[in-house]
Amino acid sequence: MSPKIPRPQNVFASYHAHVYFEEKTTEQARELCQNAAKLFGVGMGRVHQKPVGPHPRWSCQLSFDSTQFEKLIPWLDENRDGLTVLVHGVTGDDLEDHTTNASWLGEPAKLKLEVFRE
Questions:
Q1: pTM
Q2: pLDDT tens digits for range 8-46
Q3: φ and ψ at residue 28, rounded to 5 degrees
Q4: What is the domain-level CATH number for residue 20?
């Protein structure tokens, strides 16, 4: 039996969601992020077609707050169509945000946490 994946909980003032994708799902991820930005007024970062920071895969960041959380997260989960999404609080402690304050929609990925210790 695989370990239970923590579901996102609305306990922080602000959040990031990182939508992970690969070459064949680039347009799917771009469309998902653009739709989230349009429908929920969340901030959309660049569509990185290379690993950036602690993220082991290509990704696009969505920035949002606790008032947007309750509608955005279920929508992301319902519309991610197999894509993995890392959701984490933004507290100013990057290591803690990407570990203790992190949860997943889909299959978790192993983050490159050493970037926070350099």
A1: 0.94
A2: 999 999 999 999 999 999 999 999 999 999 999 999 999
A3: -60, -45
A4: 3.30.70.1240
- Structural domain count of the chain: 1
Residue 68 lies in a domain: yes
Residue matched to tokens 């909980």 = 9
Domain encompassing residue 23: 14-109
Share in percent of the chain as helix, strand, coil (round to 5): 35, 25, 40
Does residue 105 form part of some domain? Answer: yes
Nearest to 17 by CA among 5, 26, 29: 29
Q: Which of 85, 84, 100, 108 is nearest to 5 (CA)?
A: 108
Inter-helix orientation angle 26-40/66-79, to 10°: 140
In the numeric block, which tokens belong to residue 27? 């347009």
Domain membership flag for residue 8: no
**Distances 80 to 16, 55, 68 between C-alpha atoms, Å:** 16, 18, 17
Q: Which residues contact 43 (CB under 8 A, 6 or more apart)?
A: 37, 62, 63, 64
